[in-house]
Specification:
The chain is α/β, with parallel strands linked by helices. Helix content is 40%, strand content 17%. It contains 12 helices and 14 strands. It has a 7-stranded mixed sheet with strand order 2-8-7-6-5-3-4, sandwiched between helices. It has 2 domains: 140 residues, Aspartate Aminotransferase, domain 1; 220 residues, Aspartate Aminotransferase, domain 2 (3-Layer(aba) Sandwich). The structure holds pyridoxal-5'-phosphate (PLP). The site of pyridoxal-5'-phosphate has 13 residues, from helix 4.
Length: 396
């Protein structure tokens, strides 16, 4: 297992900052907004009210009820007994993989895939099969044939993450229905990581568990970090069939015991009273996405337009690791190498940064010759391939 590449870049950026360097950090996967004030107040009130003890292992009933309501609104036939509240969505994923995957079990990932899926499967002793959506503009629907070839009756688990980190792709309903058909045919459990589900632009992401036939084979992962700007509070949850919850609950109780008590109370406020704040943040992300796409286009760089989350993939050098290191050391712009997500040749940009910082970043990359001119050429197979038009990089 490799250490997390996103954390490695972030550490290097922090080192430079400690030396007084002005780093434009587009590597971090967290909103740059404060947690909504009413949520902070709810957390403080909970502390004042003495909510500082352990809670029931799977979470306080009021929060589990609020989550159940949210899931039902998303079309999932949820019951509080099928839920575990965790310290972050990452822990929810970890417990799910630990509960379901053993030595030699096959897990299918859709590349580019978030860094920690691979590590979690390896820790559990599972084997990975990977399906690449890169030639399809990071979309799943045109990759369904490839997915159909990759899965079999031996497949234990498929991980779907839409909106996606790192690509920002939002999968179509047809893609989700295709996943359903394959999951039912081969009796596969699907882990649907919907942590960016409320961060979409002009398109809605349907919950996989709401599709007919998926209720008893989907683990829905979610959390409060991204939609409510609550990364440091560490609060997430998962919903799964009772048999999975039973197994995962043992891991949960023997590892974290429960999520932090007062944080769970703040989570109730987040679910009930933040629609306006969430809309405002989403609108800002959308504006920043558009600004960044335009700035890159002005410099001859075409990117796949993300419809959700706050990331986009920038085509860079084949050696994306070297490109990212050089961009950080020379231009002081931090991004994450695509290789970390099994997508060599790209850098992941997080646009959860102010408009000024995004402009500054592109300005520096252009001035220092890190942005190349690219054009998209349609091939006879209708696959989009990226060709370098003009290279002015200082990285060889
Ligand atoms: C795709 C994806 N899933 C899950 C998580 C876990 O988030 P958290 O543990 O903060 O809830 C992240 C965080 O970056 C993510 O990007």
């Amino acid at each position: 297992m490799e250490p997390s590449a996103t954390i490695a870049v972030s550490n290097l950026a922090s080192e430079l900052e400690a030396q007084g360097v002005d780093v434009v950090d587009l590597s971090v996967g967290e909103p740059d907004f404060p947690t909504p004030e009413n949520v902070v107040e709810a957390g403080k009130d909970a502390l004042d009210a003495g909510h500082t003890t352990y809670t029931p292992s799977s979470g306080i009933p009021a929060l589990r009820d609020a989550i159940t309501q949210k899931l039902r609104a998303d079309g999932i036939d949820a019951d509080p007994s099928e839920l575990i509240v965790t310290p972050g969505g990452k822990q929810a994923l970890f417990e799910t993989v630990q509960a379901l995957i053993g030595e030699g079990d096959e897990v299918v990932l859709l590349d580019p895939a978030w860094v920690s899926y691979e590590a979690m499967v390896k820790i559990a002793g599972g084997d990975l099969t990977r399906v690449d959506t890169t030639p399809h503009d990071f979309q799943l629907e045109p990759a369904l044939d490839a997915l159909g070839e990759a899965v079999s009756d031996d497949t234990q688990m498929l991980v779907v993450n839409s909106p996606s980190n790192p690509t920002g792709a939002v999968y179509s309903d047809a893609a989700m229905a295709g996943v359903r058909d394959l999951a039912v045919e081969h009796d596969i459990i699907v882990v649907s990581d919907e942590i960016y589900g409320r961060v979409t632009y002009g398109t809605e992401q349907a919950s996989l568990a709401s599709f007919e036939g998926m209720g008893d084979r989907t683990v829905t992962i979610n959390g409060f970090s991204k939609a409510y700007s609550m990364t440091g509070w560490r609060l997430g949850y998962f919903h799964a069939p009772e048999s999975v919850i039973g197994q995962a609950g043992k891991i949960h109780s023997h590892s974290v015991s429960c999520a932090t008590n007062f944080v769970q109370h703040a989570g109730i406020e987040a679910l009930h009273n933040t629609d306006e704040a969430v809309d405002r943040m989403r609108e800002s992300f959308r504006e920043r996405r558009d600004i960044l796409i335009d700035l890159l286009a002005d410099n001859g760089v075409d990117v796949s337009h993300p419809d959700g989350a706050f990331y986009m993939m920038l085509p860079v050098d084949d050696d994306d690791q070297a490109w990212c290191e050089a961009a950080l050391e020379e231009s002081h712009v931090a991004t994450v190498p695509g290789s970390a997500f099994n997508a060599p040749g790209y850098a992941r940009i997080s646009y959860a940064a102010s408009e000024d910082r995004l402009r500054e970043a592109v300005d520096r990359l252009v001035t220092d010759g890190f942005l190349w001119r690219w054009r998209v050429i349609e091939t006879e197979q209708a696959n989009a391939h990226l060709f370098r038009d003009q290279k002015v990089s200082r990285v060889s």
